[in-house]
Design goal:
The strands form 2 sheets. Strands 1, 2, 3, 4, 5, 12 and 13 form a 7-stranded mixed β-sheet that branches. A 6-stranded parallel β-sheet has the order 8-7-6-9-10-11, with helices on both faces. It contains 9 helices and 13 strands. The relative contact order is 0.16. The mean pLDDT is 93. α3 links the parallel β6 and β7. It has 2 domains: 145 residues, Quinone Oxidoreductase, Chain A, domain 1; 121 residues, NAD(P)-binding Rossmann-like Domain (Rossmann fold, 3-Layer(aba) Sandwich). The protein is an alpha/beta fold. The two termini are 15 Å apart.
């Protein structure tokens, strides 16, 4: 049993609230899947975790609570120099960016990478990880203010959705297109293909802007382009996976190669306002709920 110090709010919580994602149990639902806190009670058969240990997790249901029952295989040890707020800000989004850049499409040196929603939580982490893997990153944002955030995260260039960004991306790449697009908007899926080079890849991992259209496989054949999907739960299949991937993410943070922007915090009982703020598109980083 973990006494929660911080809980991460994600678009997945919005999807689940709206019925677009699977929810465990029966209504009224308790949302929340990510957070960090201190172990308050340990099961009799649990070895390797003690009362007082600092624990984080990315995929434990019913996390919007003061006390959360965390299965051993989902408990991730939290280093002393990573705060509860940092862990709750980075784990789900950071592990998502980790597998997207290492598994869905392995970013290589000099790859040109296009990141949608580049000022968001996952977007900023995608920029940083793609850069440390040797990529050149172009970001897309909805405002000039968010463009500044993406540039500060390390993007080489940023374009606005209100611009003719597809033409701008093609011009930036000498007419060829990018090697990979990380597509989280959904409704822009076909535009992402336009901005992708022959033989390039579009990684679809979210639909924050609406459902994507159906893709004609003949287009994929004619252009030798690849469409692949990404879901974190297909990757975090064991405690070993959770700990090893998190450890690399924490090391990057400790080395200063990945930084987490200051989160916006709401009291847990103000969850409604937190959801409204997330859906307003005004946020540029993580939103936390504090019990």
């Amino acid at each position: 049993m973990v006494r929660m110090k911080a809980i991460g709010l994600n678009f997945a919580d919005v999807y689940r609230r709206k019925g677009n994602y699977h929810l465990e149990g029966r209504p009224p639902y308790i949302l929340g899947y990510e957070g960090a806190g201190i172990v308050e009670q340990v099961g009799t058969e649990v070895l390797g975790i003690q009362v007082g240990d600092r624990i984080a997790f990315a995929d434990v249901p019913f996390a919007n609570a003061e006390l959360v029952a965390v299965p051993f295989n989902k408990a991730i040890p939290l280093p002393e120099n990573i705060s509860f707020e940092e862990a709750s800000s980075v784990l789900l989004q950071g592990l998502t960016a980790h597998y997207l850049t290492k598994d869905s499409y392995a970013v290589k040196k000099d790859d040109v990478v296009l990141v949608h929603a580049a000022a968001g939580g996952v977007g900023q982490l995608l920029i940083q990880i793609a850069k440390l893997l040797g990529g050149v990153v172009i970001g897309l944002t909805s405002s000039k203010e968010k463009a500044v955030v993406a540039l500060e995260a390390g993007a080489n260039q940023v374009f606005l959705y209100s611009d003719d960004w597809k033409s701008a991306v093609l011009e930036e790449t000498n007419g060829t297109g990018v090697d990979v697009v990380y597509e989280s908007v959904g409704s822009t899926l076909m535009d992402s293909f336009t901005a992708t080079r022959i033989g390039g890849t579009v990684v679809f991992y979210g639909m924050a802007g609406g459902d994507p259209v159906s893709v004609d496989p003949r287009m994929l054949m004619d252009t030798s382009k690849t469409l692949t999907g990404g879901d974190l739960w297909n990757v975090l299949t064991s405690r070993e996976q959770r700990v090893s991937r998190s450890s690399e993410l924490f090391r990057w943070m400790e080395d200063g190669r990945v930084r987490v922007s200051q989160p916006t915090s709401f009291a847990l009982h103000d969850g409604r306002e937190a959801h409204q703020y997330l859906e307003s598109r005004k946020s540029t980083g993580k939103i936390l709920l504090i019990p």
